[in-house]
Amino acid sequence: MVFRGLGLHIVVPSSSNTFQQSWIASGRILFLIAVSGLGAIGLVVLSALWAGTESDAAALDRQRQLVNARLREQVDQVAHVIGQFGNGYLTRVYPAARSTGGASSLDAVLTAAAGSAISQTAMSAFGYDQAFVVDEKAQLLMLADAQTEKRYRWMKPLFLPLLQDARLGVRQGTASERMPASMESRFASAAGSNRALANLMRLEGRPTIVGVVAINDADQARQQPMRQFLIVVRFIDGAALDELSRQQGLNGARFARTADADENEVAFQIDATANGEPIGFIVWRPDLPGSRVIGRLMPALSIAALVIAVLFSVLLVRLRSSLGELKKSELHARQLALHDVLTDLPNRALFAMRFDECLAETRNSSERSAVALLDLDRFKAVNDTFGHAAGDELIRLAAERIRSILRPGDTLARLGGDEFALLLRDIKDHDQVLPAICEAIVAELGKPFPLLRGEAVARVGGSIGVTVVPDAGRNADDIMRYADVALYEAKMGGRGQWRVYSPSMDGGRNARDILKNELREVLAKGTASSARPHSDAVANRPDFGSLEVYYQTVHRAEGGYSASGAEALVRWRHSQRGLLTPASFIPVAEEGGLIDALGFWVLREACRAACKWPENTFVAVNVSPAQLRRPNFAEEVFTVLQESGLPPSRLELELTESSLIEDNSDIYSVLKSLRSKGIQISLDDFGTGFSCLSHLMRFDIDRIKIDRSFVSLLGTKANGAAIIGAIVALSRNLGISTTAEGVETEYQRDFLAALGCTDLQGYFFSKPVPLRELDCFREPETAAGMLTIAPDAVA
Q: What is d(CA 724, CA 406) in angstroms, rounded to the nearest whole number?
């Protein structure tokens, strides 16, 4: 169209041209959309087909796994059932036969007719296809018809290897010979389950489960004991296969000797248990859900593919997250095994491993290393004054300060309490490296430690004992001892110092010897004053102070948390050094052979004090391993009880598991003698040592004391509650009382009571106090006049 006017000529495209151009542009867009749509649909279809194929493969693999698991379950079930069956004869028939005195073994009771009865019982009651009673040479010990005997002769060569299996060995002794009568039934149950076995094998050309169990014990009075066994046979290609087919949904399941599956069938190979040889094949028509779903839902596969893709993506993300968490858990478990829970430093085990590696590497090289032991000087005072929470915080802060000073290749480990160990590798110029590191550590530990969110400030300091490797020797125990000697020298030199071991420290009278002699004088003075209070010999002895017994109360976890007893804790009020805690002189007493006299003195004082307490209370006294090894220890305890008049049931002796590690028969005899008089036995710091559960049963422990390190984790780490719950559940099932140590908060008290602890102990209830300040066992009118406990009265 042309407009004429004003001399202008404007040419406008016609509508047909515009439409054509728009159509071409739209067509291109539609084509792109169609191609994209077809491509997307194609991808969805291909993905669906692939997913269907993978689903079929997964379903088939799952069916095979279920078949295999079910077969193994049937084998285990046969072993379990005949194990219980055989155990019934072992624990009921056989002991009864022996108690009559008529025969020395089951041979006198189990006749051929009885063997047939056992066989018939096994087949009728438990549904086995065949059952035989045989001797250890696979000879029949039962009445059988000619057909059964002929059938057995074909099976006999296959049974012989089972009868010679080591798992059917004779038990060493009877339950009553090895443990108390109260545990005889438990042992019998456990023993029975270990005397039966079951294997998959080919028998008469058929896949078969064969189980064997001993139904008598060998009589040791006979030179050639005769063992007797029950052999049961269950074929799995008949009714058992039908049942398996119903349970697992195996369509048309059948047994074949060869893998002759049709096009729509699959074959699962059955292998013999003993040698892994193929027995045969289970053939069935598999259920393939992928193909069925694709065939029925093809129109909606595009949408389903998208949804599945999204879900799969989410699942993959979750799976990766779960695997990551699992990996973290595994790393955390390894971390706990070789690291200290409180500081995350290497523990004693990891330090020993690295130390052994260091010694092995320096044995054939000129490399020099150093081992140092470090103690916080006034840690006990901080712990007693501000509580264990402050003590734990102090340990963590001290570890961080020490770690910040060390080189990357050095090792800092926490051995326990406030004791640390250092392993300094490759100190070529040790005359400069050692002083620099040790002086820096001493300076850092001498700075104030803000505790409890700034509410308290502690100044403790630290002492270090160092020994150079290989200058001090190549034996690990000697090197650690040298470092300990140097540490003790540093402490006796005024603390806040470091010392390098030199041979002169082992010669003459060092500080440890001085303290040992002073403790010997204190014990001798105490013994002499008890025998002759006003003698000149007592008056003329040097005055190094006196021993005192402090008491920390134990409270019931129910009924108002009333005091149920108290634990006796020894203190040494030294005339020059002040009030010394056991950590200061117990090692010296053990080294100098004074621990027996010290333990006897504490026991006597505690029993005398407890006589004046209410009748329903007890006193707990710690016993060292050295005391338990004394053959006359039990008689000494009985003498103290008789002199003091304290009933044996009110005395509780606390042992550490290190006392029981040797499994010494003398220790067992001593504990048995003590318990026979009614004395209670408790296991202290349970869970932190070797924690062998057999100790609870072998030594008839009456009480478990849960270590304070687990209690301190309550409210901070979930595994603390889990560990305590497991210990309490174990104790409840065994009928053992539990005392939780280190209770410092109301939350810990309530939580432990809810878990089922029978008794509680800790600073929340009371600190260790002298007998004169122990007012919870006094009469009300007497207790009212008692003074409150001064903070500095507790060490």
A: 36
Residue 496 contacts residue 377 (beta carbons within 8 Å): yes
User: pTM of the full predicted structure?
Assistant: 0.41
Which backbone phi and psi does 232 adopt, to 5 degrees?
Answer: -115, 150
Q: Dihedrals φ, ψ of 510, to 5°? A: -90, -175
CA 95 to CA 217: how far, in whole Å? 10
d(CA 280, CA 67): 14
Residue 140 gets which letter from DSSP? B
Looking at residue 393, what is its pLDDT?
Answer: 92
pLDDT of residue 510: 57
What pLDDT is stored for residue 24 in this prediction? 55
C-alpha distance from residue 313 to each of 55, 223, 305, 309, 324 (Å): 17, 71, 12, 6, 16
Average pLDDT of the residues of the chain: 76
The Cα 240–Cα 230 span in angstroms is: 21
Cα 155 to Cα 205: distance, rounded to the nearest angstrom = 11
Contact 144, 116 (CB under 8 A): yes
Cβ count near 678 (within 10 Å): 12
* Omega prior to 582 cis, within 30 of 0: no
For 595, phi and psi rounded to 5 degrees? Answer: -65, -30
* pLDDT at 265 > cutoff 70: yes
Residue 189 carries which side chain, given as an amino acid letter? S
495 near 463, Cβ under 8 Å? yes
Helix (H, G, I), strand (E, B) or coil at 522: helix
Give the whole-angstrom CA distance, residue 421 versus residue 411.
8
Residue 464 is predicted with a pLDDT of 93
